[in-house]
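User: I'm writing a short report section on ligand binding and want a predicted complex to refer to. Could you take this sequence and alpha-D-glucopyranose and write out the structure as tokens? A short remark afterwards would be nice.
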Amino acid sequence: MTDFFKGISKIAYEGPETTNEFAFRHYNADEVVMGKTLKDHLRFSCAYWHSFAWPGGDPFGGQTFERPWFGETMALAKLKADFAFEMFDILGVPYFCFHDADVRPEGTNFAENTRNLEEIVDYFAQKMDDTGMKLLWGTANLFSNRRFMAGAATNPDPDVFAYSAATIKTCMDATIKLGGENYVLWGGREGYETLLNTDMGRERKQAGRMLEMVVDYKHKTGFKGAILIEPKPQEPTKHQYDYDVATVYGFLKDFGLENEVQVNIEQGHAILAGHTFEHELATARELGIFGSIDMNRNDYQSGWDTDQFPNNVPEMALAFYEVLRAGGFTTGGTNFDAKLRRQSLDPEDLILAHVGGMDACAAGLKAAAAMIEDGALEEARSARYSGWDTKRAQNLLVSDLEGVEQFVRDNDINPQPRSGRQERLENLVNSYL
Ligand code: GLC
Ligand code: MN
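Assistant: Sure. The structure tokens for the complex follow:
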């Protein structure tokens, strides 16, 4: 025990009426909904980078947070782990996620980075053993260090491609050693700033080859987890190649990897791509590549990736509705890829941000489960398409243009528009909230 969290004890479920801010109102981990506990539905995870590695900077100013573990030494990296695991325990989250650069000091070369990572992985392994914490996913930070400024896999310099591949291997090894359930690839710098200096075709092939190597290594090592790509349209690059779920699917198809790789979908990234979160989730479900979610909230006005903690229950209900329609998580989970506002300096802020996020997710999931169990939404949807249930309609899909023309003439087809009933459905959704 450290004194950083000032003796805040484990957060307990006290129900919607409680006035205790250090308690859950909706997240009752053991409550069973649709045959599963909320804990097993939601599979909450904390992101190491936002809560423990980020100093609170923005483009106009640097560090605002003062944390006893800040600094680039192994001793401080271990101290950081002590605080992180203490927070996981206070919150009762079962999982966490990290990049290599979040957890170990930056060394002077590849070998030193790898040694540092391995030492921390051993330290994590011991803590995970002691606490029962699990790793939702591991990943490599191939975007912060200046060596990656022109991309990792898509860099014009083959040495950076090589360094990136080698780093991914060490991060996959770390993930495997810690029993991680997924491995994530987010290509923050896999894109371009200007087409004037960019060979897009070449860069795309390099990205495809890197992904093939990752999948190949997964099979060689017998890693049972899922390989996940996390789409995002831009920021930090002007244009990122993994723009959105549909774009990633096209890329996977091109390299024959659509059955090997799934997606980790982030709320804020969906918004930046001009979509809703539920659009991205539904697209992944329909294409059979739904994997996991990064839960957060984007500011709708700023146009930046603001990574705020989620608090909009109606939005989350629609998102979890799509997650449940996809059959729920298998290896995936709900990772809080969310950070405090830079003025939220206190340790309590860190705890309460997660408590609020977990509660909002639980409330959203319960509303979504009610939508599924009641069935009225799905009934309305299937009624809307019921015309397609007949043999006559199905024949249209195997006919040709001449055949369909004949069909229209023979049956005197004269379509009659019907209401889409959108407002009624929106009212219905609100009735579950
Ligand atoms: C970066 C991205 C975040 C992503 C993570 C893991 O921190 O900002 O969205 O989930 O990397 O790849
Ligand atoms: Mn993310």
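A remark for your report: The radius of gyration is 24 Å. The pocket of alpha-D-glucopyranose (ligand 1) is lined by residues 49, 139, 184, 186, 230, 266, 294, 337 (CB under 6 Å).
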